[in-house]
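Could you join me in thinking about how sequence relates to backbone shape in a protein? We need material for that, and I hope you will provide a protein of your own picking. Once you have written the record down, we can walk along the chain together:

…
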Amino acid sequence: ESKLLKIEHDIEEHRSKQELSHKEMIAAIQKLERQVAANVSEVYNGNQQNVHASLHELDRDLGCVLYNQYYGSTFSSCKNVPSNVSGTYLIRVKNDSDPFKVYCEQEAFGGGWIVFQYRYDGSLDFYRGWDEFRDGFGDLNKEFWLGLEKMHQITSGRKHELMVELKDFSGNYKYARYNAFEIGTESAKYNLKVLGNYTGTAGNAMYFDKGSKFSTKDQNNDADSTTHCALHQEGAWWHWYCTRANLNGRYMNAEHYKSMRWNYFAHNNQGLSYSRMMIRELE
């Protein structure tokens, strides 16, 4: 009897949530109708600036309704999320795998991106060991590293591209884009199995990392066995003979080989203020 009551309660709770989502959608549509009528009036009055501002606000409101409606739902990737609002969503890579949360960037570069590394203020220490880089650390709404195992699961099943966004401490922005990206298994030391062709403005600093195994301060998998680069440069990465892209290095506004750097950004070891790495499923 108690089980039946629980089932009835769960059904009623689900129905209430659905009704609430439906009411929110109806309210948004009604607001759209009112806004369209107002915009027609604005056009007749020649006030184009107010029209654009109103449409932007409306688009944002509808996006928020969709985000609330789909929050808690499970998707195969950020590309399949039917909302243009960036935030955390649940994805399930395979039908028989456990879902996990990711941060989806739904606006920049057309949206549909899974962010796997994000640094912007130095509040999170990235000088960590193998287990943490494997499992992930940080807060998905702040600075974080998603985790090598999740990255392997995501990229091994379907083809993905890579986007790297960078800023220096003067606010200069550059990016690097690769049309293919795949991470190997843990037994292969999460090697950079596939790295496609480069386009962008930041320079191809990851060119020499292709095929390299991932190294951390407590596990040296470098091609150069005489130098433990992750320890020497204080940055876990796909080190070959060290790297020109030390984006997990120390957060510092200084020209130093241990800094969070992308050597081709300014052709030196100057530390950067912002790094965001993300992947998107290809057609």
